[in-house]
Amino acid sequence: MPFNTRRDSPWLALILLMAINTVGFIDRIVVNVLVEPIKGEFQLSDTQVSLMGTAFTLLNVGVALIIARYAERARRLSLIAAGTLFWSVATAACGWAVSWTQLLLARMGVGLGEAIGLPSNQSVLSDYFPPSKRGLAISILMLAPPIGAFVGFVGGGWIAQEFDWRSTFLIAAIPGLVLALLAWLFVAEPPRGRYDKVVTDEVPPMKAVLHRLFVLPSARNLVIGSSLAAMLGFGLNYFFTSLMMRQFGVGLAEAGLYSGIIASLPAAISVVGSGWLGDKLGAKNPAAYALIPAVCLIVGGPLYVFAITRESLGLLLGLISIATFLNFGYLGITYAALQNLMHPRMRVSTFAVLNVVYGVASALGPFLLGWLSDHMAASFGPAQGLSVAMAITGALYVWAGLHYLLASRHLARDVAAVAEK
């Protein structure tokens, strides 16, 4: 390149990578608002339509591990740009699908592209921001789910109602094509381990990554707790639009609007707020990175159960907003805590392993809730059956919160133990 446009700028990197993460989440979640029209066109059950989540996961989780090991040695920004381009094209292919099988294959393509493009993001930011600022930085990166949910639900619902569900996929593909080019042109590759005490070019073996994730008591419980919360969240979000349409007769665009607002604004405030609070309190007590989500989940789970069973749409939406604020507070702060426990050349691999775990969780959540809804429909009908299934699912947030409590008991000791390794 005769003229170097790439800048070593933490905030430029954060803004562009957050935008890429957001587009990735939109392309992943936009199917949630399209469940009913896709189900109607292809004559599917709740269990069958939930397989779009499984199709996304099939290639995503396996390929991400292979790419991650390569990314520990390679230029991460090149992978990010290439992956973003690939999944955007695959998203467009979803809109061109003329059969259920073709749609599932296209969703697998989206999963493959995200496996290439997303695992390196947190590793890059960990080399742009010191440990004391990673909670906020990674929480801003993790604004992708709430912002992506808003755009996916509201924009996707409106486009699907005004045009059709195929147009939703085609339009959703456009931003990723632009962002792939911007990341390639303007974001510099930061030095590895810039803010870490121990910096080497040697890439630790995969067993060392797995040891830190699943043998360290704090990391193990953070992974289990966040996986449970992710599984529940993906399942509940997948069917929330359908619940409003079945239970209250709300139109597709209106249901998408409500879903988007609830899944975005409360969650965004919670994600950034918990990350900021974690950095503030964690400087003196690292256990805060686990205690904050523990309290949120243990309170938010029962509140969700109460909210989802209300017969007034206004009351349900108001209470679900509060429950969402609580139940999404774990997102950024968990990733920051886990990144702080890792060697600089373990961080892409760590994200990839977590991607496998969370990918399985994201596939299981909609599938299990869809299965439970079908089972409950036999006794309560399709609308009430889905409501009961979602209440049972929401109660399990307490289980996730208990694992964060266990993590808080060991986090300070584990952070100190790995600092010199």
UniProtKB/TrEMBL annotation:
It is a multi-pass membrane protein. Keywords: Membrane, Transmembrane, Transmembrane helix, Transport. It comes from the Bacteria. The chain crosses the membrane at residues 12-31, 51-70, 77-98, 136-159, 165-187, 222-245, 257-277, 289-309, 315-338, 350-373, 385-406. InterPro entries: MFS (IPR011701), MFS_dom (IPR020846), MFS_spinster-like (IPR044770), MFS_trans_sf (IPR036259). It is found in: Membrane. Residues 13-412 form the Major facilitator superfamily (MFS) profile domain. PANTHER family: PROTEIN SPINSTER, SPINSTER. This is MFS transporter.
